[in-house]
Design goal:
single chain; 104 residues; alpha+beta; four-stranded antiparallel beta sheet; 2 helices; 18% helix; binds zinc ion
Length: 104
């Protein structure tokens, strides 16, 4: 009989160092409907990944991206409002150099 340690971990392995995510810090980010977002930090190489898990009639659909975002930042971004066109225009106007006071 296989021991629990031999079984593949359901979250797979770190794409950077191939360590099983059994050795990872996992933080839930958000839950919307059938989709969960998780933040995983590999305990071996410290690279982080954001994982999307969606339950579908065909099974569990999983997609992940490597990130330099911390779990706290990921939670903050997940709960913030999407960027609007007005935000983009405001940032563009704020960055116009002739609006900054010139230093002498
Ligand atoms: Zn790793």
């Amino acid at each position: 009989m296989k021991s629990k340690e031999d079984a593949p971990h359901p979250l797979g392995q770190c794409p950077v160092c191939r360590t099983s995510y059994a050795a990872a810090s996992v933080a839930p980010i958000s839950q919307r409907g059938q989709t969960s977002l998780l933040h995983l930090t590999c305990d071996s190489c410290q690279h982080a990944m954001i994982l999307s898990l969606r339950r579908s009639p065909q099974g569990l659909v999983c997609a992940g991206i490597v990130t330099d975002c911390s779990a706290e930042d990921a939670k903050r971004f997940a709960s913030s409002e999407p960027i609007s066109v007005d935000d983009v225009i405001e940032a563009h106007e704020a960055l116009q150099l002739d609006k900054f006071p010139r230093s002498v």
